[in-house]
Amino acid sequence: xxxxxxxxxxxxxxxxxxxxxxxxxxxxxxxxxxxxxxxxxxxxxxxxxxxxxxxxxxxxxxxxxxxxxxxxxxxxxxxxxxxxxxxxxxxxxxxxxxxxxxxxxxxxxxxxxxxxxxxxxxxxxxxxxxxxxxxxxxxxxxxxxxxxxxxxxxxxxxxxxxxxxxxxxxxxxxxxxxxxxxxxxxxxxxxxxxxxxxxxxxxxxxxxxxxxxxxxxxxxxxxxxxxxxxxxxxxxxxxxxxxxxxxxxxxxxxxxxxxxxxxxxxxxxxxxxxxxxxxxxxxxxxxxxxxxxxxxxxxxxxxxxxxxx
Amino acid sequence: xxxxxxxxxxxxxxxxxxxxxxxxxxxxxxxxxxxxxxxxxxxxxxxxxxxxxxxxxxxxxxxxxxxxxxxxxxxxxxxxxxxxxxxxxxxxxxxxxxxxxxxxxxxxxxxxxxxxxxxxxxxxxxxxxxxxxxxxxxxxxxxxxxxxxxxxxxxxxxxxxxxxxxxxxxxxxxxxxxxxxxxxxxxxxxxxxxxxxxxxxxxxxxxxxxxxxxxxxxxxxxxxxxxxxxxxxxxxxxxxxxxxxxxxxxxxxxxxxxxxxxxxxxxxxxxxxxxxxxxxxxxxxxxxxxxxxxxxxxxxxxxxxxxxxxxxxxxxxxxxxxxxxxxxxxxxxxxxxxxxxxxxxxxxxxxxxxxxxxxxxxxxxxxxxxxxxxxx
Lengths: 309, 376
Description:
The complex is a heterodimer of chains A (309) and B (376). Chain A has 309 residues and is mainly alpha-helical. Chain A has one domain (3-295): Orthogonal Bundle (ABC transporter involved in vitamin B12 uptake, BtuC), CATH 1.10.3470. Chain A contains eleven helices and four strands, in the order H-H-H-H-E-E-E-H-H-H-H-E-H-H-H. In chain A, a hairpin with a 2-residue loop joins strand 2 and strand 3 (144-146). In chain A, helix 6 (172-182) crosses helix 8. The longest helix of chain A is centred in the N-terminal third of the chain and has 31 residues, at 2-32. In chain A, 52% of the residues are buried. Chain B has 376 residues and is α/β, with parallel strands linked by helices. Chain B has 13 helices and 15 strands. Chain B has helices at 2-23, 40-59, 82-94, 106-119, 132-135, 148-162, 176-191, 210-217, 230-242, 261-264, 289-299, 308-325, 330-338; strands at 24-33, 63-64, 67-77, 99-102, 123-125, 141-143, 167-172, 195-201, 223-227, 249-252, 274-279, 342-343, 348-349, 362-366, 373-374. In chain B, the strands form three sheets. In chain B, strands 8-7-9-10-11-14-15 form a seven-stranded mixed β-sheet, sandwiched between helices. In chain B, helix 9 (230-242) links the parallel strand 9 (223-227) and strand 10 (249-252). The longest helix of chain B has 22 residues, at 2-23. The termini of chain B are far apart. Chain A binds chain B through residues 3, 6-7, 10-11, 13-14, 117, 120, 124-127, 129-132, 136, 138, 140, 145, 147, 150, 216, 220-222, 224, 226-227, 229-230, 261-267, 269-270, 274, 277-279, 281, and chain B through 35-38, 40-41, 44, 174, 198-202, 205-208, 210-212, 214-215, 217-218, 230-231, 234-235, 238-239, 241-244, 260, 263-266.
C-alpha cells in the first residue's frame, strides 16, 4: 500500500511539472494555433539563468535564506525568459503569421535548436548541479516519502493554474485574449490589439516555462542545455491528451500522464510477470494516449473554442 | 650594409624553410567523441587528451620514412548518436586519416568500427567498454581499456564476497554500454548466489527515476547496480535520498565513476553507499598518471573528467606503431600495431588475440567525504 501511495505521489509530482509546461503550450496554441516547439528551450534558458543567479547570490551573500534566493533567482530568470520569448515571437513567428501553418512550426523547431546551441556555448555542455535551496529531509506520510520541494511543486502548479484561470476568465486582458483566439481580425475591429495580446501571451508562456524549469531543477538537482527537450515533448503530449487549447485540460492531461508513467513503470513488470519491463513505460503512456484520442479526437476536455486562451 | 646582410640571411632562411616544408608530411589522426549533447563534457576531455598527445608529438620532431611528420588532429562530433557516429566514420575514411582514436560510447563505436574495418583504418578506443566490440572479429579494432565484463564481474564479486549482500536490483539505461555492464553484473551475481529481485530500465536522457526506484524499494534489495552515465546516476542518488533509501548500496561501472558524481548528486547522503568500478588503475596508480595530469591541467585546467589519459595513450600508441613500422600507411603499420608493447601513461599496452588489452586492471572506488577515492 505504501508503495502504491509512493507511486501516486511520484506520479502527481511528475505530472504537475508536465502540467506547468503544458499550460505554456496550450496558451500559445489557443491564441495563434502554433505549437511552440521552442517552449522547452525557454524552460531550459530559465532554469540555467536561475542556476547562474543562485550561484552568484550564494557567493556574494552567504547565509541568505534559501527561499529568498530561490524567489529572487526565479524572478530574474522570468525577466530574461520573458524578453527572450518576446523577441522570439517578434522575429521568428510574427512575420509568418499569415503563412501556411507549417512555416512557423518549422521556425519553432529551428529556434529550439538555436537556443540549445547558444545555451551550450554560454553555459558549457556539462551537467550542472542545482543546489538544494529548501530542506531536503523528506516527510513521511503512511510509509511514503515526500520532500518539501515536491510539496512546493504541487502547490505552485495549483496556484499557477488558479491565477491563469482568473487572468483568462475575469480580466480585461483575458477577454482580449479570448477574443483574439476566436478571430484576431474581428477582435482588432473591436479595439483589441492582437499583436499586443499575442506578445502578452508569449510573456506569460515564458513565465510559466521558467517556473516549470526551476521546479524541474529543484526536484532533480541538475541543469543542462538539453534539459528542456524531453519534458517539452511529454508536456506537449499532455496538452494534446487533455485537449490542446484548454487550460484545465493541460493540467488534467499532465497529471494523468505523470500518474500513468509512474504507476505504469512501477507495476508493469510485476503485472506481466517480467515480460515487459519499465522500458515499456513510454509505450504504456502512448497506448493510453492513442486510445483516448481515437475515442475523443480533440482530447479529454475537447477544444471548446470559446474557452481557449 | 648591415641591413643588406641581414636581409640576405633572412632570404636564405626562407629558402631553407621552404626546403624543410617540402620534406614535411602531414599525418592526420581522426578523433571522435560526443562534443554536443548530454555527454559533451566527457567528449571534450577525450578531445583534450588527443590534442595534448598531438602537440607533444609535434614537439618531438619525429621523422618517419625520411620525412618530418607534422601531426594533425581531425576532431569529429558523433553526439553519442550511432547514426551520426557512422556518418562521421565515413567522413574520416574519405579524408584518408592514418588512424582513428575513439569513439567514446560503445553504442556508436560498434557500428562505426565496421566502417573503419572496411576501409582499412586502424581504430583505437580508450573509452568504449562493451565486450561485443572486440568479439566481432574486426581486424582494425583495438581497445586499451578494460571491458565491461571485467567491470561488471568485479562489482558482482565485491557485492557477494566482501559485502555479503543477498538481494540486488539491476537498472540499466538501455544503451549498449549500460546494458552490457548491467547484464554481466547480473550474470556474475547470480553465479555467486546473489538474488536479482528487480530489473528496471531507464534512458540516457531521463532525470526522473522515482517510479522505478519505488518499484525497487518494494522488493527491499541490499544493493542496486546501475549501468549508465554519471548524469543519470547523480539525480538517481538524490532521489534515493528522497525515498529514504540512502543506505542501499549503489554499484556502477566507469560511466558513473567520475569526479563529477558528488556534484551531480548535490552531495546526496546516498553517495556514501556508492561503490563504482573503473577500467585501468586509478590515476594515482597509473605508471605515469600523476605526471600526465600535471601536464593536462597546465593545458586544460579543470577539464579532466575520465578518459583523457586513455585517449592520450591511444594517440601515442598509433604514433608509436607508425614510428616502429617506419610508415604511416595503415597497411604497413597495422601488423606492427598488433604486436605493440607500449609503456603508456595508463598501463603497459599489449594486445590479446581479440585486440583487447592483456591483463587489463580494474579499480573499485568509493566517495568518502564526497571525493572519489580508490579503495585499497
